[in-house]
Structure formats: structure tokens, C-alpha cells
Amino acid sequence: MKQSRRKFINSIGAVAATPLLYTNEPIRFSTDFWENLRADFLLTESRTYLNNGTFGPSPKLVVDTIKKSFESTNTSGEYGHTDEVRKTLAEFVNADVSEISLTHNTTEGINIVCWGLPLKAGDEVIITLHEHVGNALPWLNRAKLDGIILKPFQPATTAEENLNIIKKLVNDKTRVIAIPHITCTTGLIFPIKEISEMARSKSIFTAIDGAHGSGTFNLNMKELGCDFYATSCHKWMLGPNGSGFLYINENQLNTLQAIQVGAYSDAGWNMFSNPPEIKGYNPTAHRFDYGSQSKPLYDGAAASADFHTKIGKAKVETRVRELNSYLFAGLQEMKNNLTILTPEEEQSRICMVTFKPKNHDYKVFANEISKAGFRIRQVPESGLNAIRISTHIYNSKSEIDRFLKAVENNV
Q1: How many domains does the chain have?
Q2: Residue 212 within any structural domain of the chain
Q3: CA distance 109 to 49
Q4: Does residue 291 form part of some domain?
Q5: How many whole angstroms separate alpha carbon 356 and alpha carbon 341?
């Protein structure tokens, strides 16, 4: 009998993971707990990693799960299936398993939605001026090829302002609101629940770039209320590169046209009929992912979800917010020498802080910070020419203190 995925994870967890997380003992969330969690990651001690918004290093549990799964598939010759993974990811965001399509990254999910929606020339799509290339290019390409019209706007700094901006942009031609949950530029949070409620009342689709949403928020798709949510596992979920998923609200499954299809997309096909036909699509979101998938990578993705769940998704969100607030407050003390671009409003930020030095070129500043032993990200997007810092649960306040000291020495 095949071992279940959860039993498989637990079988290596006792060896590979922090014992505190993989015993039945209650977790005590103290400063020591979060400090000790760093030992669960393979991150080098030679520099401080502050770039989780680009890539989230995996804990040992995830890395070992992938290794063991690769060994299993290659020794048995059975490459396996991903049904259990799909269930785990659905549970992770409180969705039905039928609403989850496995993707390789956020951009793939965005493309599925962008090209599958029934849009025609002249239909309008609301989008921001702070898009990641993964959300910008698919919609720009569809505008180029199909004549849809993009209506970009400059985000404001509060949730209420952003909701009002979008409301004012809506007209009879608006068909889609395609915005990020959290911008990659400044870490601004959009009030997706309120935007989705408004859009639904006007029969407008909500297509959310959730690259920075899974693994930061205690996500609940039933409460969020959007139609589509594309995300990656390799950022805040701390899963492997090449894994992600797309949430498709069950009410939109038959609205979104499957464009690229293959094995598992169909409900039957016949090349001998006259004419040859596809008898229908898979009744679930599985219709949008097809063919052979990498079971080891998706096992790793599921392990990353389990890692968060064992700690507690709400606890993870609280810790992410705590570190963000600590960093934000420290940078505010240097506001005479730098400009913080991330909103001050607490509900409009969670995991990233973006700023620009007033007296130095941002590239020169970034180079000095890098030489001081910190991995950060430059933000040329949207003409910001700024510095982005993104912290996660493996970071500590002492690391932030050292970073703030480096900033103070260079501004």
C-alpha cells in the first residue's frame, strides 16, 4: 500500500525538521522560538537575507521532502500523481479542492485567467501602475492582440482611497479588475475583500495577482471573495521554485475557457467519431493543468503548506506583521535622510518596506548595503528607483537592528 503524503512528510520530519514543530507538544511562541526557527533553514550565516519577496528559502523539511520524493520516483519508476497535494493546497487557503489548479508560478496562473476570460475589443480592464511584469505583460499582450483596453491607475496610500479610486474607474465597459493583493514595488495591500464585493455587485471579474499573499496572510478564499487568485509557492510559502497554484471560484469554472489542454483536462475525447471531438472538460480546475507534473516539486509545495500550518497560519501572519512594523519604525527614525514609499497605514502593509535615500543614488546605496552583508532588492519598477526590504519568519529583530545600523551609516 502506498504511503500517504502526510505520513511521508511526517516520516522525514522527525529527522529533518525542528523537533519543536514536529512533535505533539504545544508550541510556545516566545522570542526564543522565532530565533531558533532559523536553524530550520539552510541559509548561509555569512550574510543577512532580506529579500523574501523575490524568493523564499525553504526550510529543511521542504528540501528533504523534495529529495526523498525524487529518490522514490526514480527508484520505483512510478512518477505518481498530485491529488493529495491539491487537497493540501486547497485546505491551506480554505478553498474546495475542485477550485485549485496546479501551476508553475504566479505568472502562469495569471495567463490562464487573462486568456480564458470572455473578453472582446473595447472591454476595459482596471490595472495599476505598480504591476510586476508577470501581471503587466499578459494583459498588455491581450490588449495588443484582442483590442481590450487597459485602465491603469496610480495607487494611493490607504485602503479607503484605493477602493474609491477603483470605484471611480468603473464604468459600463469595465469587465475585469486585475490588481495585486500586495504590490511588488512598495508592499501596498489592496482591500481585496471590499473590492471583490463591489465588483461582484456589478458583474465585474476580479483577477488577483497573489504572488505575495500566500504565506503572509492567513488566507481564506471563501472570505476574500475574489473570482481568481494566482500565487506561487516559492515566495512566502517557502516552497520550491517551479510550484504554484491558481484558485478559480467554483462559480467561474465554466466561464473561464481552457485554452491549453492535455491529459486530465478532458471528460473524454474520441478521434474516431465524425468529426473527432472532445466530449467535455474535466469538471474541476484540474482542466487547466495537464500532462505530467513534477511530483517531487509539488510534494515540496505541500510540505511548505504543512510547515506553515504546524506553526499556525495566524501566528505566521502575526510574526510577519511584527517584523514589518519593527523595520518600518526603525526606518521612520531616519526620515530626514530617506523617503519611505510603503504606506504608513498598518492595514495597508504586511511584509515589505520600500524606501529611497535622499542624498545618494539608490544603486550606489544598494551596493554599499550589499557589501555590508545584506541581500536586498532594488526597485527600478514604476520609476521608483528605490530599495525594498522583505522579511519573513526566519528573520530576527537583531538582524533588522544590524540592517538599520548599516542604513544609518550609509544615508
Answers
A1: 2
A2: yes
A3: 28
A4: yes
A5: 8
Task: Say what the pTM is.
Answer: 0.93
pLDDT of the residue at 22: 52
Above 50 in pLDDT, residue 12? no
Q: Write the pLDDT tens digit of every residue in 330-353.
A: 999 999 999 999 999 999 999 999
Shared domain for 267 and 367, answered yes or no, is no
* Range of the structural domain that residue 404 is part of: 314-410
Alpha-carbon gap, residue 103 to 180, rounded angstroms = 18
Question: Do both 386 and 357 map to the same domain?
Answer: yes
Which of 320, 185, 295, 301 lies closest to 234 in space, CA to CA?
Answer: 301
Residue 275 sits in the same domain as residue 350: no
Per DSSP, the three-state class of 102 is strand
Same domain, 290 and 383: no
Residues 6+ apart with CB under 8 A from 6: 84, 88, 306
Q: What is the β-pairing status of strands 244-248 and 100-103?
A: antiparallel
- Both 204 and 116 in one domain: the answer is yes
Domain harbouring 326, CATH code: 3.90.1150.10
- Pull the grid cell for residue 347: 492595514
Q: What angle do CA 90, 96, 97 make, to 5 degrees?
A: 60
Q: Is 213 helix (H, G, I), strand (E, B) or coil?
A: coil
Last residue in a domain, options 272, 288, 307: 307
Integer-rounded Cα Rg, in Å, for the chain is: 22
Does residue 44 belong to any structural domain of this protein? no
Interatomic CA distance for residues 411 and 391, integer angstroms: 21
Is residue 269 domain-shared with residue 120, that is, in the same domain?
yes
**Are residues 169 and 199 in contact, defined by beta-carbon separation less than 8 angstroms?**
no
Q: Same domain for 223 and 269?
A: yes
Residue 275 CA, chain-centre distance (Å), reads 43
Q: How many CB atoms lie within 10 A of CB 20?
A: 17
* Upstream peptide bond of 275 is cis (omega within 30 degrees of 0): yes
| pLDDT tens digits, one per residue of 297-337 | 999 999 999 999 999 999 999 999 999 999 999 999 999 99
CB-based burial of residue 261 (10 Å sphere; 0-12 exposed, 13-18 middle, 19+ buried)?
Answer: middle
Whether 49 is covered by a domain: the verdict is no
Q: Which helix H or strand E contains 103, and what residues bound it?
A: strand 100-103
* Among candidate residues 51, 351, 338, the one with its CA nearest the CA of residue 187: 351
